[in-house]
Amino acid sequence: MKLFSNAALAVLFSFSAIISAQPLADLSIPDLVVNPVEDTMCVPINANHYQEVVAYQFAIRYDSTQLVFAEVRFNNNGLGINSRNFGMPLVGQLRHLYSPFDTGPITLPDSTLLFEVCFTPKVPNGYSIIAFGGDIETSFLDDDVQEIDSLFLTDGSLTFGEIPTIPLRPGDTNADGTVNHTDLLNIGLAYGASGPARDTVVDGFTEVEAVPWPQTLPDDTNFANIDADGNGTIEAADVAVLNTFYGQEAPGFWNPGGGTSSGRSADPSLYLGGVDTINAGELMTLPIFLGEPDNAAAGGNGLAFTLEFNPDEVDLSSLAINLENSFLGEDLLSIAKVTELTTGRFEVALARKDRADAPAPAGAALVGNLTFRALNNSANENYQLNLVLTPDAYLSADQVTIALGGTGNEIEVNGTVSSREPTWARGINIFPNPTQEGVVILNNLPAGVTDISLVTMHGQELARYPGSQRSLDLSELPAGMYVVRIAAGAEQANRLVVRGR
Ligand SMILES: [Ca+2]
Ligand SMILES: [Ca+2]
Q1: What is the pLDDT of residues 422-438, one digit of tens each?
Q2: 423-499 domain in CATH 2.60.220.30?
Q3: 89 or 265: whose pLDDT is higher?
Q4: Which of 2.60.40.680, 3.50.50.60, 3.30.310.50, 3.40.50.300 would CATH assign to domain 270-414?
Q5: CATH assignment of 22-160?
Q6: How is the chain split into domains, by residue range?
Q7: Distance, CA 199 to ligand 2 centroid (Å)?
Q8: Model-level pTM greater than 0.90?
Q9: Which of 196, 243, 484, 491 has its CB surrounded by the most CB atoms within 10 Å?
Q10: Neighbours of ion ligand 2 (CB under 5 A)
Q11: Which ligand is nearest to the CA of 181?
Q12: How far is the CA of 39 from the centre of ligand 2 (A)?
């Protein structure tokens, strides 16, 4: 029996040919530590994957104040690289060009040593980045003389001699003696970087000695501090160490306590949107916004802030933040913790992973959606719940602080025996919210709605609709927040709607 038709076989072969013939170049330089120092120290250039490459060129940079170039050691790896493939027109750079004649595309076994670059030390103890890039463009070409799309280059470093180690505590990325949400921001600023791994296993919030990395943040924080788990790469796993040691303090560290709200200032502020009346005992979700249409925030890389409250009035286990649709981006690092250092603080930080700034929002920007449950007070009576948002740090990708203000929101909490929002209001939702187009649909309205009105945040009525209306057109309104007031006889419910750009 014939298993495949000729046509099917042709498809099968061309498909497998595509799989195996995908041009790919994945090169890396390790982070080497050589101690004691040696007369000649060689750094390998490894081809982790090297498929269907025809020709390439790149330069390798090093710090000529630390190292003197000695030689290149070739490896019998099938490429036939020799001294004619190298040049040194500039101090601190080695050029490498490979363009053999009459060879087709070359594929090397995975993890092939391409060649080694050897240096002699210029100083007794030092370090240098050994990195791709220089005065010639990095270029890998395939059989069609096209740039290879799948090109991955990982830089390395050479640390040599008796390097004074730096003391650090795992998770305290900003070296202020404690682990909290602001430590997340440095992980964002250095995300994806690699350097010397520590040889000590993370074992408690104790001081360890680390070889400093060649990279530092603009405020001189060494990247070794940011590699919380010490594995030589700054990545999401380091956030897990922050979670483990959250709230830990170094002995003798003075805790200044919680910050205070700076109040609404001229700077774009963090504030809670949503309703001004809630019911005790019910889970509420309120949006946290940054900036307003006429005072939008700049786009940044990472934001840390604190929500302060009376711990007797909020169910601590209910506190959570959802960062979906956050203005900072889709792919974020985040941490959200009720700190045990002081009471009544929910600390949140979010940071991008691309070491770039988010686009500047056009108006009120959604930071995230806060969920919490207000508790009943002892008398089951209404009370004012104070929720205060304080920005702790908002940093651009180059670690410049962007000034923000904070606010306090007063929310009326209805106790169980008091007049509560009617039961029929619980199912109501407004979609989409925020609305970009301007038209929103009211879902799950009860039958007895008498009228619906649109009100500003200051209570001014903008429009009134018949109780049967299920879609509202906000397209003529400026961007901002509005209240949809739904009345059924004497009962009413308020819902917040956000008109986006
Ligand atoms: Ca810290
Ligand atoms: Ca790490």
Answers
A1: 778 777 888 888 888 88
A2: no
A3: 89
A4: 2.60.40.680
A5: 2.60.40.680
A6: 22-160, 167-252, 270-414, 423-499
A7: 13
A8: no
A9: 196
A10: 227, 229, 231, 233, 238
A11: 1
A12: 31
